[in-house]
Amino acid sequence: MLDTETTGLDPASGHRIVEIGAVELLNCIPTGRVWHCHLNPDRDMPQQAYEVHGLSVEFLSTKPRFHERADDMLGFIEGAMLVMHNAAFDFAFLNAELERLSRPLLRWDRVVDTLALARRRHPGAPCSLDALCKRYGVDLTERGKHSALLDCRLLASVYVELVGGHQARLEFAANGGRGARLTTITSGCFSNHAARESAERVGNKSATTLRSRSTRIVPNDFPLFHAQSSTPSTRIGSVQIVRRANVVTCRSRVCLPVGMPSRYSRR
Fold it and tell me: What is the pLDDT of residues 135-148, one digit of tens each?
């Protein structure tokens, strides 16, 4: 999950990022890893922006500048899918900041826009973060003003509900809780960061023999990582999965969607 607060609406007009927050999820469950910073924008703070997030020029004047924290931020998000609400906004500001430093830009195919996802799931209904929190019963009592880190945590709860991953639960291994594994159905929340390190090609297997008894169909258009494999069967870590139509089934009862919205590459 990633969110920003800014001095305005358009980076092309000279507006800058003043806060970045990021929260890591693995299988729809927060890992406890977060990244957060306030930034000195080297410019004034318009009153309208101040009323949104409450970050004053005086408060930000002692904070680091983006170029001082860029490497740390990029290290935190490396290899991950970036889940953002109204992603085009944050995406444009982050890339504007990176472009100022002549650094490689973020790629849109690594982004999941929860606003677009919510609009597809709830057509015609309000899909702001506040509205989605109220729809899914997520506690908003701490959200007096916008905060990048708080909004990431709220978005994490909303995201889990949007993809049906609320059924996930952890069973800790017998090593004192140092390891954990998912044993119930989770609808489509497989971490790209973790899978990137463990995905490997395997030969074709029978979809019938590998199909779970408890398979849940997830939204066909939900954009998530799938292992880079042209074969019907793929192993991610210890999980054997099989592509069947728009659903991936597996022994561990984790179901991942294969379909992608039109702006993402399709497999």
Answer: 999 998 888 788 99
Written as six digits, the tokens of 169 are 């639960």
Average pLDDT, the chain: 73
Amino acid at residue number 245: A
Catalytic residue among 15, 38, 146, 226: 146
DSSP 68: H
Does the annotation count 226 as an active-site position? Answer: no
Distance CA(208)–CA(145), nearest Å, equals 52
Please state the φ and ψ torsions of residue 124, each to the nearest 5 degrees: 85, -10
Q: What is the dihedral of CA 66, 72, 73, 77, to 10 degrees?
A: 160
pTM above 0.90, yes or no: no
Going by C-alpha positions, the residue among 12, 34, 8, 7 that lies closest to residue 21 is 34
What CATH number matches the domain at 2-162, 3.30.420.10, 3.40.50.790, 3.40.50.1820, 3.90.150.10? 3.30.420.10
- Pairwise CA distance, residues 206 & 233, whole Å: 8
3: three-class secondary structure by DSSP: strand
